[in-house]
Amino acid sequence: MQSAGWALLCLSTTTMALLKPPTPGECFCGKTRISLIDADAIVSSSICHCSVCRRLCGAPFCANLLTPRSNVRIDIYGSPASTDALAGLQTSKNVVRYRCTSCSSPTLATLKLGKQDLYALPLAAFPRPHPAKWAPQHHFHYSDRVMDVHDGLTKYSGRYLLSDECDDAGEPLPKGRLPGVGEEGVG
């Protein structure tokens, strides 16, 4: 007869993720809670400088986690809910942004990227410390920025992976050259 420990070792990664408690985030007033079912199932973590994000969050840029919609649970006052319970605003063909109906905090946005249905979740909605995997990996719409950011992260002048890379001052990088590496290379 096999022990319970052996059975635990045989569980799949998906099953193990279901055994971990969700990672909760919430709006300013606490009415709307957004929970990540698996905190490791993040597609990316980005900093966006687009004019829409800047105007809607009231900041020079915003940091968001991108994850499959199936990885997010929405609760209103502790009861399961859907985006129908939030205030939604279609800001582009493929993006709908949602806010708490009580405090108007940004809670999430739905994104269509090709065939993927994703949620963008504000990093600020989750208490620190954040998992290392959640650290922003790049900037996009950097040509729309209101301030330069010198952080060593990759910067895209427009949409992520669909625009040219640029340096911290927004100048285009020559194709095939890494940020911070001169003509002579590293060293």
UniProtKB/TrEMBL annotation:
PANTHER family: CENP-V_GFA DOMAIN-CONTAINING PROTEIN-RELATED, GFA DOMAIN-CONTAINING PROTEIN. SUPFAM superfamilies: Mss4-like. Gene3D superfamilies: glutathione-dependent formaldehyde- activating enzyme (gfa). This is CENP-V/GFA domain-containing protein. Belongs to the Gfa family. It comes from the Eukaryota. Keywords: Lyase, Metal-binding, Signal, Zinc. One of its GO terms (molecular function) is metal ion binding. Residues 23-135 form the CENP-V/GFA domain. Pfam families: GFA. InterPro entries: CENP-V/GFA, Mss4-like_sf. It comes from Pelagomonas calceolata. The keyword Signal applies. Transmembrane segments: none annotated. Residues 1-17 form the signal peptide.
